[in-house]
Specification:
The chain has 203 residues and is mainly alpha-helical. Helices cover 66% and strands 0% of the residues. It folds into 2 domains: 86 residues, Endonuclease Iii, domain 2 (Orthogonal Bundle); 100 residues, Endonuclease III, domain 1 (Orthogonal Bundle). The mean pLDDT is 97.
Length: 203
């Protein structure tokens, strides 16, 4: 089963690489920018999140500026992302906590990351994987594709994560999220996506 799953992952990676795209976690100069961008990407398309994050970091260039910002000003900039009011509170609170407790540098331990305002396991794991840790962030793309390919029978993200950790060798963990997200975003038609997944399932 492990060998088959690896073959399937490689096919997903091949099919998802036909379009160049930047995911929300990628390409930021500072680690705190990466963390905030991932947080804002929840239930929001990456292409929207990247533009919003660029605007945010252009207007508020440091954690100190974000932490001291008027919430209305942050909300104005990040309004295009879904749940922007809640995310406004989280962005400011994260800045304050990182400055107060971590000298502005996000921790690289899952247990500490998930204590930050608005940061759940998915956000924490995507952040950790982006910086080289062996971690799997389970979002809607990962959940859907994993179920379709029979990698898991669960719908709960935490249980899906455990199934994937058990199924794949550690060397594959950190690329799982980005590979499946790229595939999911490349083939947005449900019919086309399901046809491809049915073919990949037979690999």
């Amino acid at each position: 089963m492990k060998e088959k799953a690896i073959r399937q992952l490689e096919e997903l990676e091949r099919l998802g690489s036909v379009k160049k795209m930047r995911l929300a976690a990628e390409g930021w100069r500072e680690e705190w920018q990466t963390l905030i961008a991932i947080l804002m990407s929840a239930r929001t398309r990456d292409e929207v999140t990247v533009i919003v994050a660029e605007n945010l970091f252009s207007e508020f260039g440091t954690l100190q500026e974000i932490g001291k910002a008027n919430p209305r000003d942050i909300a104005r900039v990040i309004e295009p992302v879904n749940f922007s009011q809640n995310k406004t509170k989280y962005v400011i609170a994260i800045a304050e906590v990182l400055l107060r407790e971590y000298k502005g540098n996000p921790p690289h331990e899952l247990e500490k990351l998930i204590l930050l305002p608005g940061v759940g396991r998915k956000t924490a794991n995507v952040f950790l994987a982006e910086y080289g840790a062996d971690a799997i962030g389970v979002d809607t793309h990962v959940s859907y594709i994993s179920q379709k390919l029979g990698w898991t029978k669960h719908t709960d993200p935490d249980k899906i994560e455990q199934d994937l950790l058990a199924l794949f060798p550690r060397t594959h963990w950190r690329k799982l999220n980005s590979t499946l997200v790229r595939f999911g975003k490349t083939y947005q038609s449900r019919i086309e996506k399901d046809e491809l997944l049915l073919r990949i399932k037979k690999c």
